Amino acid sequence: MNKDQVKGRVEEAKGKVKEVTGNLLGDEKLELKGNLEKNVGKTKASFGDLKEDIKKTK
């Protein structure tokens, strides 16, 4: 597991927590911010996964 995968999954988890908290509190800004952060984290994790796949093929 590389640092991009770890950072991405941590960011994804933090975003999910913010999204759910915003939903529960009725705070649309927090919910949107969490959703954005979650999706950025997913992208970073996917990039890290891709890097790992490339390493394995070499």
| Structural class assignment | mainly alpha
The overall number of domains is 1
Helical residue percent band? over 70%
Beta-strand percent range = under 5%
**Terminal Cα span:** 16 Å
Low-pLDDT ranges: none
Number of strands: 0
Largest sheet: none
Number of helices: 2
Report on the architecture of this protein:
The structure is a single chain. The protein is mainly alpha-helical. It has one domain (3-57). The protein is 91% helix and 0% strand. It is built from 2 helices and no strands. The longest helix is centred in the C-terminal third of the chain and has 30 residues, at 28-57. The chain is rod-shaped, with a radius of gyration of 14 Å. The protein starts with a helix and ends with a helix. 16% of the residues are buried. The model has no long low-confidence stretch (mean pLDDT 96).
Short description:
With 58 residues, this protein is mostly helical. The chain has one domain (3-57). It contains 2 helices and no strands.
